[in-house]
């Protein structure tokens, strides 16, 4: 079902009038984690002002270590839904277990499956039983075939609203947190009809690389981007402040993308 052979035309996912996979480049911006109502409200205002369409923010965080901040949970879903509504943005948040799919879908417009859960088949099966759009991140050591098979689980269950997200893979290079596999963008567009989103934040792990890799992703054919932005990255509650853009960088980047997109 994920294959272009089966479905030659591009899939366009329409969420409350925002089309993902169509003509428009979609930008999802926001913090790694929802922290407080004030934080998410202010960031939502800035995402909207910059021209973004979707507010990102994790309420449930898949942290590598069990003692790290794990997210504020359902409270965070509520804070983010309010901020999205107030500022006219769609919202995307990560869901980690099948048990939380329904509550996350109640509050968010798009559900994110993180890289660590790409092959959490129970989660994928559960996401196949609803119609809420899913942004499926590529596992950091997964092949394209494994990635598309993971998408297949959701599609096979009856949810056609899946987007694929390249977020960097593990290579021998340690200077960057991951290696953003730019080739994945045109490869996935060729193999599949599903929208392809790039995550240059986790893909590089370094703020100064997010701007060029965002532009490179657009040049490679990405349908959208998911980018971390924070008003106070040095004090963010996850370690992802180092890869979060400052609001003015985010705004400049989106202005540049508006100039770049029509050229491609
Ligand atoms: C995130 O988007 O904050 C995140 C945890 O992403 P990934 O699953 O790609 O590491
Ligand atoms: Mn993050």
UniProtKB/TrEMBL annotation:
Asked if the keyword Disulfide bond belongs to this entry, the reply reads no
In the record, biological process GO terms are: aromatic amino acid family biosynthetic process
- The question of whether Transferase is a record keyword is answered with yes
The residue ranges of the DAHP synthetase I/KDSA domain are 13-256
**Record's keyword terms, sorted:** Transferase
- GO terms of molecular function: aldehyde-lyase activity; transferase activity
Kindly provide the name given to this protein in its UniProt entry. 3-deoxy-7-phosphoheptulonate synthase
Q: Tell me the stretch of the parent sequence this chain holds.
A: 71 to 334 of 347
